[in-house]
Design brief:
The chain has 637 residues and is an alpha/beta fold. The protein contains 21 helices and 28 strands. It starts with a helix and ends with a strand.
Length: 637
């Protein structure tokens, strides 16, 4: 069925469902959604069955929008909303989504902004034409979220045209001939880093993740020069499972080399990826390395991102439907479920997953209507990769801090990834100090940790219910504790390094391959009263890996010169903080799937861990397993 066929079918369905008195001004696509513009919006909103009937007839998502002529200008609408909403609501921000006719109103007292039985919302809609949604103001303002929303508002017209083009691509005519699906390993197979998969069907080519190995100086990019991938402008879409650079780090490069399609991700993944990518550029420039893209390419990626909620299904190509589910790894991380053809085949790509409830998230989803093939990670899939529980890990960290702060009056340095591990460590430290389990000392957050934490509070719907409730109560919000102090200047960092007082420092980068953590290590590396605590994965060859394995001297570069640091501080590892599933959790993830998959393809792990996990899955459950190498292709059907 062609694009015009779909639009003609929509017109016929509207004629059947709606009375002739309803004025339809335009029918168009917005990505996979059929958008119907009308000057008689109330005829739709008063009858909830109308949209449902249209969607069933078209077998597509349907959105009813007010004709643009009904909407006040953004500036005029903003002024009216400020007049309508009582001052006691304390509006802090408004974000206008011009492509959908919606306005998001942030308020410190959302109930007042909504009004009794929604009376204020109805007044806003009646007087401005905009459909209002009120959300609670995040307790920590995020510059990243604010900048991205402002940027998307500035490129509204470009984005409207982009979404229209995507809609036409998705609804293009399908090719004739036998259907098939295959996946090509482009990076992150029998290794950790540069994750990238190509899903190729008769009608589509989709990249899932496009990461960079930040620990590699020579071979850090996925194989985007493979003939299956080129030319890049023939790739239909990118699906981004989460924001860590080994999955998202090279996405902006695609736009540098003529890719102009959509990136599908959750909203927090979009925002966190932009934050990490910008920091990656900053570090590359500081290290006198040529970055693979510019900040303009990051903005281009943001402009082309289509955000999805968990459980929301959408067409992304003529023959692939995508649903994202919680992966439990970091904020917004997703398991991607791909439904191919008209019930032909289903593929699940886990990205990085945590099949256990954590202080931040619910455990990863492993229930799907169908999943013939699962492509899963194996970071901790080796025979001996068994992690302690979150509770045990928290107690271990408290013991380490007590030992070095109370008894030795030293420093505790914790290298962390800005996203995920840092927030969980903050929760443990805040509770320990609040309950007087360790002495009250300043807890310094250096690097992007504060901004990443702010993004967490901007998307509470992606957190577990217990934490979600806490962050909206000032007296309970652990991220607002007065003991947490943001390091916001080089002078402050130097003062902390030079101070003789006990302190806890969380600093990026998590593998110590750059970032402010190295400044603290230079200052305290030879102090036997202090400690360094690893709470995340350390890739082979990184500085963190060398310290963890017992090197007594580490060479670093400072202002072009090599300096040697004697490692005398105590070295500890708390395994239970990982955002990855351990071996038992990975096995339970597969064994708990109903119906059981026909095939498991193992990736994202060192070679021995990939092969060992694959062998165990086959022996225990009788499921076919594969462990491809990079550039190998597996035919799915």
């Amino acid at each position: 069925m062609s694009v015009q066929d779909v639009l003609d079918e929509a017109e016929r369905a509207i004629d059947e469902v709606l009375p002739t008195s309803v004025n339809i001004t335009k029918i168009d696509f917005e990505a996979s959604t059929v958008v119907i513009y009308t000057t008689d919006l109330d005829d739709f909103t008063t009858d909830s069955e109308v949209i449902k009937n249209l969607a069933e007839k078209l077998k597509r998502r349907v959105s009813i929008r007010p004709d643009p002529s009904l909407l006040d200008g953004v500036d005029e609408a903003e002024e009216k909303i400020k007049e309508i909403v009582p001052d006691d609501a304390e509006i802090t921000n408004m974000y206008f989504k011009e492509e959908s006719g919606e306005v998001i109103i942030e308020a410190k007292a959302p109930g007042i902004a909504i009004g009794k039985k929604g009376v204020i919302l109805n007044q806003i809609k009646r007087e401005t034409g905009w459909a209002p949604e009120v959300i609670r103001t995040p307790p920590i303002p995020s510059k990243t979220v604010k900048d991205i929303r402002s940027y998307l508002r500035a490129v509204t017209d470009e984005r409207k045209e982009f979404l229209r083009v995507v809609g036409r691509r998705i609804n293009r005519d399908k090719r004739t001939g036998k259907t098939f699906a295959r996946v090509t390993a482009l990076g992150g197979y029998r290794e950790v880093g540069r994750s990238c998969h190509l899903l190729h069907t008769r009608d589509s080519r989709v990249l899932i993740d496009c990461g960079i190995d930040v620990s590699s100086n020579e071979d850090g990019n996925p194989y985007l020069n493979a003939p299956e991938v080129l030319p890049l402008d023939q790739i239909d879409a990118v699906v981004l499972t989460h924001a860590h650079l080994d999955h998202s780090g090279l996405v902006p490069s695609l736009y540098k080399y003529n890719f102009d399609g959509p990136v599908y991700a959750t909203a927090p993944t979009r925002d966190l990826a932009a934050l990490l990518q910008l920091d990656y550029l900053k570090v590359a420039v500081a290290d006198a390395r040529n970055p693979p893209y510019k900040s303009s390419d990051i903005r281009n990626a943001v402009k082309h991102t289509i955000t999805l909620e968990y459980g929301e299904t959408t067409d992304i190509t003529p023959d692939i439907r995508l649903t994202l589910h919680n992966a439990g790894h970091i904020l917004g991380s997703s398991v991607a479920h791909m439904h191919i053809g008209d019930g032909d085949y289903n593929v699940v790509i886990t990205g990085d997953l945590k099949y256990d409830k954590t202080w931040l998230f619910n455990q990863a989803v492993n229930k799907f209507p169908r999943a013939e093939t699962v492509i899963m990670e194996s970071t901790y899939g080796g025979y001996h990769d068994l992690q302690p529980s979150r509770l045990d890990a928290g107690e271990q960290l408290k013991d380490i801090m007590l030992q070095h702060i109370k008894y030795a009056e030293g420093k505790v340095l914790i290298p962390v990834f800005a996203v995920g591990r840092s927030q969980e460590v903050i929760l443990v430290i805040e509770e320990a100090i609040r309950k007087k389990q360790i002495p009250e000392v300043p807890v310094y957050l250096d690097g992007m940790i504060w901004e990443a934490t702010a993004i967490h509070t901007a998307y509470p719907e992606f957190l577990n219910n217990k934490l979600k409730k806490k962050i909206f109560h000032d007296d309970e919000n652990p991220f607002m504790s007065p003991m947490l102090k943001q390091v916001d200047s080089m002078e402050m960092r130097k003062d902390i390094c030079d101070s003789e007082e006990p302190a806890i420092v969380l600093a990026t980068a998590g593998m110590m391959n750059g970032g402010p953590v190295l400044e603290y290590f230079k200052a305290w590396g030879d102090d036997p009263e202090s400690a360094i605590v690893f709470v995340g994965y350390q890739a082979s060859g990184t500085i963190g890996d060398k310290i963890q394995r017992g090197y007594d001297r580490i060479s670093l570069t400072e202002k072009g010169k090599t300096i040697d640091i004697d490692v005398k501080l105590r070295v500890h590892t708390c395994e239970g903080f990982s955002g990855h599933s351990d071996r038992i959790q990975l096995l339970h993830y597969i064994s708990g799937m109903k119906p059981s998959p026909d095939r498991v393809i193992v990736s994202h792990g060192e070679e021995g861990k990939c092969t060992n996990l694959a062998s165990t899955i086959y022996k225990k459950y009788g499921i076919e397993t594969r462990t491809p190498r990079n550039l190998e292709t597996v035919r799915l059907y």
